[in-house]
Amino acid sequence: KLKVPTPADIVARKGGAPLVCLTAYTTPVAQLTDPHCDIVLVGDSVGMVLHGLPSTLGVTMEMMVLHGQAVARGLSRAMMVVDMPFGSYEESPGQAFRNAAALVAETGCAAVKLEGGVEMAPTIRHLTRRSIPVMAHIGLTPQAINTLGGYRVQGRGEDAARVLADADAVADAGAFSVVLEKVPERLADEITARLAIPTIGIGASAGCDGQILVVDDMLGLFTAFKPKFAKRYAMLGADADKAIAAYAEEVRARSFPAPEHLFGDALPEAKE
Ligand code: KIV
Ligand code: NA
């Protein structure tokens, strides 16, 4: 059995073989990702992907704990990271520690992820100095949808300096890795070159130290909308539609259930 990588192991992978990361929210999907991934993220995308929320803003600590516990039961070799939901860390470093500690204690996650750059650096420092490893998340930060005004590319043109400052700040504050979401490829490469910690891209660059996708996006299970960066490696939603349509047809035709699905009246002498 391979050893579960620690945050220090992840830092040591900087510049090496790309880190493979996916989200998961349930035990069976965690079991599918575990043999192939270095890191499995219980993302707050769970709110949109599994709970039908219009954004990640309505996600609660309770949801992150329940999904974190479910994912933990499905992992044996990948490292688990749990997202801090909107409102659970922005108020103060103390609030962030209290909620991050609850996620660690209740789910067993090795680290937490939170969104934000320069403004969150003191919080990242506060957590890492108190034994909670932090994965940072900069560029497009979906919890900021109401102030960003849309899910647009971040860091184009003059705005690159802002994202660079965020990258420097989270690395300096002690984050063990940083997600770069929806930033220009050249900027992602520049950040990857200048930071000593791994960058994990999503809509960023193949040159990042790792990649992450929302598992329901790449499996074709979540189809409400499709970001440009969300490559579909399967069409499980379409397969499920076919399966459910076939079941409905057989029920209406009384061809399901068939004899092999049914039970006789005789007392069970032999095992049935
Ligand atoms: O919530 C999420 O799934 C994420 C990843 C896409 C990085 O934050
Ligand atoms: Na997230």
From TrEMBL:
Matching Pfam families: Pantoate_transf
Cofactor(s) the protein needs: Mg(2+)
Sequence positions that bind Mg(2+): D44, D83, E115
Positions of the catalytic residues: E181 (proton acceptor)
Molecular function as annotated in GO: 3-methyl-2-oxobutanoate hydroxymethyltransferase activity; magnesium ion binding; methyltransferase activity
Keywords: Cytoplasm, Magnesium, Metal-binding, Methyltransferase, Pantothenate biosynthesis, Transferase
Record note on cofactor: Binds 1 Mg(2+) ion per subunit.
InterPro entries assigned to the protein according to its UniProt record, in alphabetical order: Pantoate_hydroxy_MeTrfase (IPR003700), Pyrv/PenolPyrv_kinase-like_dom (IPR015813), Pyrv_kinase-like_dom_sf (IPR040442)
Residues making up the signal peptide according to the UniProt record: none
Principal location: cytoplasm
Subcellular location: Cytoplasm
GO CC field: cytoplasm
Pathway noted in the entry: Cofactor biosynthesis; (R)-pantothenate biosynthesis; (R)-pantoate from 3-methyl-2-oxobutanoate: step 1/2
Reaction catalysed by this enzyme: (6R)-5,10-methylene-5,6,7,8-tetrahydrofolate + 3-methyl-2-oxobutanoate + H2O = 2-dehydropantoate + (6S)-5,6,7,8-tetrahydrofolate
Catalytic activity, EC: 2.1.2.11
Annotated GO biological process: methylation; pantothenate biosynthetic process
Family: Belongs to the PanB family.
Biological role stated in the UniProt entry: Catalyzes the reversible reaction in which hydroxymethyl group from 5,10-methylenetetrahydrofolate is transferred onto alpha-ketoisovalerate to form ketopantoate.
Assembly behavior: Homodecamer; pentamer of dimers.
Protein name, entry field: 3-methyl-2-oxobutanoate hydroxymethyltransferase
Organism encoding this protein: Actibacterium naphthalenivorans
Encoding gene per record: panB
